[in-house]
Amino acid sequence: MQRVYFLKDTVMETNKHDLSNLFRQLGYSGEAKDIDLFIARNRLKKGVALTDAVFWSPPQAHFLKRALADDSDWCEAVDELSVRLTGS
What's the pTM? Predict the structure, then answer.
């Protein structure tokens, strides 16, 4: 992660919060082929929230819940993942 220092003792994160980096944050490969394979193997069942899917570990599910609840920079990537996992 590249960091940019712009005020005394203040750090601005410059990582892109895209699907590839979301997968890396979750402990997976961020390569497109690996993301596609993960999505093909792990589909969300109708009515199941992304954060409640059985294929997440507790820390992964917690990260996704916090990303959505806090309306964090990861929200768009999490929403994209949800859409892709539902096949919508």
Answer: 0.79
